Amino acid sequence: MWKWIQAFASPRNFYQISEKIIPWLMVPFIVLSLIGLYWSFVVSPTDYQQGDSVRIMYVHVPAAWMSLFIYIIMAISSGIGLIWQIKLAYIVAKVSAPIGASFTFLALVTGSIWGKPMWGTWWVWDARLTSELILLFLYLAYISLNNAFDNPKTADKASAVIVIIGLVNIPIIYYSVDWWNSLHQGSSISFTKISMQQDMFIALLLISFAFKFLYSALMLMRARNEVLVREQNSRWVREIITGADK
Asked: 184: closest CA among 192, 193, 174?
């Protein structure tokens, strides 16, 4: 297993293998998105209190889940990079940051749109909203710090420390509605219970898995480009460039 991971972590092997994986990620993303949208707008019922405005949940909640999921992936990748000095791990963390920031921004925007009819305002300094906003700032801080150094090795190590320290915000986001009095509704889905209508839960899962396939495809696309940039002086990259020019 470790030998396979080491082989895949080779920039050249990663570049070649990832090209074959990407189409297999885009197809389920498209299929799950179409089914998820149908389930969200046709099959799923309206909420007895919120009416049809509850349907924004099917974008907001999966986007919020993705904002946490991608940050954890970045932290794990950064830790692997620091401990085992695997360049590809640093690359995964770097290219994931803009994607994670986009999902976090989407979660904040859809949350504000959803909150307006429910709370009568676009924004409140609620514990969950504030900690999610801090997560966006952590993503932006990582991106800024990573781009602040000319030396990629220095940039990777410095930004890895930032993202690992920022992990403390993840449980705060998750448990904020339980730890503090909050306008934000409590979690309807936890490890021990699911307190929502079944069709609503199915719609959330469909969109959530669609987002994960989308992230995986985008991450691999961006990682392949980053590998070419970092390995531009390697023989195999020059061969690819020469072959593309013919």
From this structure: 174
Summarize pLDDT for 165-192 with one digit per residue, the tens.
Answer: 999 999 999 888 777 666 566 666 655 5
Residue 186's Cβ-count burial label (10 Å; 0-12, 13-18, 19+) is exposed
The torsion defined by the Cα of 183, 208, 141 and 154, in degrees rounded to 10, comes to: 150
> Measuring CA to CA, which residue among 147, 145, 67, 136 is closest to residue 100?
67
Exposed/middle/buried for residue 246 (C-beta within 10 Å: 0-12, 13-18, 19+): exposed
Name the phi and psi angles at 100, rounded to 5. Answer: -65, -40
Three-class SS of residue 111? Answer: helix
Tell me if the pTM is above 0.85.
Answer: yes
Helices (H), 39-126: 57-84, 87-119
